[in-house]
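Q: What residues go here?
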């Protein structure tokens, strides 16, 4: 099932039960254990069980949802009412998943190519190694990219402020130009 289909199912669930499901990840709350069965019973076959399962799996695997699984936090049912709480085991499992979602530290990422090279060298001990050129210094494009993103964001914020403050588009721009 593709991402668009999953988002469509989540959108339907959020439309039908806005107190339980949320499209923005920042508003997601821990769901009642066994909520899949409640959803399937309420939908009465309108959405296949496989699609509901895939959508719920995607919904609860988001990092923001996992961050909300804190010991003793309320779980909600379809109507948004408390239906149990998060256990210590659930919180520990969520922390493990969050740790696994984090990008690898820079040192480990740099060490991996060296390990691969060492493995290849040990496999081909009898084969003479070819001469290698020194590595080219790499320059990071991140500062230029982040600078460009900052400029775009500043322009967006100025445009939003202009729209909020004036009913006539271009009024502040004319002031800026002078």
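A:
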């Amino acid at each position: 099932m593709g991402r668009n289909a999953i988002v469509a199912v989540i959108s339907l669930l959020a439309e039908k039960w806005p107190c339980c499901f949320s499209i923005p990840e920042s508003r997601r709350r821990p769901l009642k254990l066994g909520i899949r069965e409640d959803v399937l019973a309420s939908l009465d076959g309108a959405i296949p069980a496989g699609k509901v399962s895939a959508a719920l799996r995607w919904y609860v695997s988001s990092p923001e949802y996992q961050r909300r699984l804190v010991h003793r936090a309320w779980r909600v049912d379809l109507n948004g009412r408390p239906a149990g709480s998060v256990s210590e085991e659930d919180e520990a499992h969520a922390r493990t998943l969050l740790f696994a979602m984090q990008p690898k530290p820079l040192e480990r990422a740099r060490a991996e190519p060296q390990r691969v090279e060492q493995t290849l060298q040990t496999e081909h001990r009898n084969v003479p190694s070819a001469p290698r050129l020194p590595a080219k210094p790499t320059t990071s494009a991140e500062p230029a990219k982040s600078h460009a993103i900052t400029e775009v964001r500043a322009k967006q914020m100025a445009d939003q402020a202009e729209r909020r403050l004036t009913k006539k588009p271009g009024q502040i721009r004319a002031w800026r130009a002078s």
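A: Context that may help when evaluating the design: The chain has two domains: 3-101, 143-177. Residues 3-101 form a domain with the Fertility Inhibition Protein O; Chain: A; Domain 1 fold (CATH 1.10.1710.10).
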